[in-house]
């Protein structure tokens, strides 16, 4: 039972240490150590537990870690809500000038003003430059 406790402690220490490193290597090794602890608790000798640790480590570090890192990196560039609107295309539904107007962005009607005080007529496609409060600042030439 002592090897199982050693593997268990090693696994927990590595998983906790991952909080500091953030590179997903230690957590993979920690999970592999927990697997070795389980094998050891079920009666496997030290050699079998070590093989379980080695195989699980390789599988997790080479298989799971890259997929997990890709998944997390995709999340950093994702924009949603108001942050996703700049750069999108809108259609003028009520004449837009430097002070007032209305545009349809997606399915929603937004108050709008042109960035350079240009008058933009109904039906023209525009590009959303920024969102200022509840107003879309737009420019023609979408």
UniProtKB/TrEMBL annotation:
Biological process annotations from GO: proteolysis
Keyword Glycosyltransferase: no
Keyword flag Coiled coil: no
Membrane topology summary: Multi-pass membrane protein
Organism domain of life: Bacteria
A GO CC term assigned to this protein in UniProt: plasma membrane
Compartments where located: Membrane
Coiled-coil region: none
NfeD-like C-terminal domain segment(s): 83-138
Primary localization: membrane
Keywords attached to this entry: Hydrolase, Membrane, Protease, Transmembrane, Transmembrane helix
PANTHER family in UniProt: INNER MEMBRANE PROTEIN YBBJ (PTHR33507)
Name this polypeptide is given: Membrane protein implicated in regulation of membrane protease activity
């Amino acid at each position: 039972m002592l090897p199982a406790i050693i593997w268990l402690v090693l696994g927990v220490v590595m998983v906790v240490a991952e909080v500091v490193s953030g590179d997903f290597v230690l957590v993979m090794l920690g999970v592999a150590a927990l697997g070795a602890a389980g094998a050891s608790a079920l009666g496997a000798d030290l050699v079998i537990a070590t093989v379980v640790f080695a195989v699980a480590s390789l599988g997790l570090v080479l298989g799971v870690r890259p997929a997990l890192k890709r998944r997390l990196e995709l999340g950093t560039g994702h924009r949603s809500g108001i942050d996703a609107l700049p750069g999108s295309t809108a259609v003028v539904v009520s004449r837009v000038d430097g002070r007032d107007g209305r545009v349809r962005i997606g399915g929603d009607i937004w108050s709008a003003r042109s960035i350079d005080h240009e008058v933009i007529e109904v039906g023209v496609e525009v590009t959303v430059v920024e969102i200022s409060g509840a107003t879309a600042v737009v420019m023609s030439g979408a």
